[in-house]
Design goal:
It is a single chain. The chain contains 18 helices and 12 strands. The chain folds into 2 domains: 231 residues, Type I PLP-dependent aspartate aminotransferase-like (Major domain) (Aspartate Aminotransferase, domain 2); 134 residues, Aspartate Aminotransferase, domain 1 (Alpha-Beta Complex), CATH 3.90.1150.10. The strands form 2 sheets. A 7-stranded mixed beta sheet has the order 1-7-6-5-4-2-3, sandwiched between helices. A 5-stranded mixed beta sheet has the order 8-9-12-11-10. 39% of the residues lie in helices and 13% in strands. Strand 4, helix 7 and strand 5 form a beta-alpha-beta unit. With 436 residues, the chain is an alpha/beta fold. Bound molecules: pyridoxal-5'-phosphate. The site of pyridoxal-5'-phosphate (PLP) has 13 residues, from helix 4.
């Protein structure tokens, strides 16, 4: 609209200037807009009827779509749905599968936010959880009931670095038509692609390694596009039955892509945790250097773990790349490019030793986050695992003297020097002093 003295100031302030210049940017443009214009009534009707094109950012946005396509491609999945946080990704994925009266089987060794979601929030909605030890295949099988709608676990867990045997657990679910949902936040598609091993759905906190810079939150759900209505339709009537108005079911409209389509068209936009296009852009930028960062972080973390394992102040290092780790062989099978950057170290001096280290590091940042380009440290007993009983913490490998490290891309000598100075004054005692 041209500036025109006959048109009022308030009108001109919202209409003057073209927002649709045609250019060919190499970087993904940020479509920071709530919605998109329709060319005609038929075009708007077509969009509402079939979902094609863009109408409103909660149901689709080109910047968000570019990141979704990139993540689906990296995971070897059929389609990805970006949401506003990792917590939202887990919530949407589980609510797309289970409803009131249903049941899920979950590894006991998972992120505390997910555990709280299951124990407090989904339980209140009538979804029941049975927790099982990650590596106990008989327990996974025994826990399944006729109401079970999903198996859920993390690829590499915090704090003890347990490795999920994805092929074995997904096979147990498949026998009964039940999908395995895997949180692969700690491994990223660079280190591990769970769909290639039989998982049906992958979720990530994109706030971590995918974004990498610690500036934004995001989450993603990637579906494998292998929904089998004959084997699983009886478990998921919302995918195979006609819709509320008697129209075709998701399975009729999308075939093997029905579960992914339901997440995209129904669960994510209705529950509503839409990502900002700006955050999507930043996550997309982060992903462009994912392999470089994760490779370096894995090398750094293993070097730090090996160094710590030799220290007299240290009782135990739970890093799956160390020969001493119980899942070392499983890790070699699944993690051929590196073992990630998050692990725990337990100090012989107990709580006071842990306090001393987290308060003495100078380069390493004391904060609750992981997967960042910077190295971070946290004391799980008093933070991430404080809502667990002493026995539950023991089973998760968390003692008073345990600290969690998330190693970044810094120069390894600087990281070791920082830890060396932080360990000065830490008592070297025979066994951990248990202060609860
Ligand atoms: C394994 C795992 N899954 C999910 C989440 C939740 O992600 P967000 O913080 O992006 O909501 C986290 C957060 O720490 C996590 O570590």
């Amino acid at each position: 609209m041209a500036a025109n003295a006959d048109i009022g100031f308030s009108t001109r302030q919202v209409h003057a200037g073209s927002a649709t210049a045609h250019a060919s940017p190499r970087a993904t443009p940020i479509y920071l807009t709530a919605g998109f214009t329709f060319d005609s009534l038929d075009a708007s009707a077509e969009h509402f009827g079939t979902g094609t094109g863009f109408g409103y950012t909660r149901t689709g946005n080109p910047t968000i779509q570019a990141v979704e396509e990139r993540l689906a491609c990296l995971e070897g999945g059929d389609q990805a749905v970006l949401v506003s946080s990792g917590q939202a990704a887990v919530t949407v994925a589980l609510l797309a599968l289970a409803g009131a009266g249903d049941h899920v089987v979950v590894s006991e060794h998972i992120y505390e936010g997910t555990r709280g979601l299951l124990l407090d929030n989904l339980a209140r909605l009538g979804i029941e959880t049975t927790f099982v030890p990650t590596g106990d295949l008989a327990a996974w099988r025994d826990a399944i009931t006729p109401r079970t709608r999903a198996l859920f676990a993390e690829t590499l867990s915090n704090a003890r670095n347990d490795v999920l045997d994805i092929a074995a657990v997904s096979a147990i679910g498949r026998e009964r038509g039940i999908p395995l949902v895997v949180d692969s936040t700690f491994t990223t598609p660079y280190l591990l692609r769970p769909l290639e091993h039989g998982a049906a759905v992958v979720v990530h906190s994109a706030s971590k390694f995918l974004a990498g810079q610690g500036a934004v939150l995001g989450g993603v759900i990637v579906d494998d596009g292998r929904f089998d209505a004959a084997a699983s339709g009886h478990l998921f009537p919302h995918l195979v039955q006609t819709d509320r108005l008697g129209g075709a079911s998701f399975a009729e409209r999308h075939g093997a892509r029905a579960r992914g389509a339901y997440i995209r068209e129904s669960a994510a936009p209705r529950f509503g945790p839409s990502p900002s296009p700006l955050n999507a852009f930043l996550i997309g930028q982060g992903i462009e250097t994912l392999s470089l960062r994760v490779e370096r972080q894995s090398q750094n973390a293993l070097a730090v773990a090996r160094w710590l394992e030799q220290r007299p102040e240290v009782e135990r290092v739970d890093h799956v790349g160390l020969e001493s780790h119980p899942d070392f062989d499983l890790g070699r099978r699944y993690l051929t490019r590196g073992t990630g950057s998050v692990f725990t170290v337990t100090l012989r001096g107990g709580l006071e030793a842990a306090r001393h280290v987290v308060q003495s590091v100078e380069l390493i940042t004391h904060m609750t986050h992981l997967g960042d380009v910077r190295s971070l440290v946290l004391h799980p007993q008093s933070t991430s695992h404080s809502a667990r009983t002493v026995e539950e913490r023991r089973r998760a490998g968390v003692s008073p003297g345990t600290i969690r490290l998330s190693i970044g891309i810094e120069d390894i000598d600087d990281l070791l020097a920082d830890l060396e100075q932080a360990l000065v004054g830490v008592p070297v005692v025979e066994r951990e002093t248990v202060v609860l």
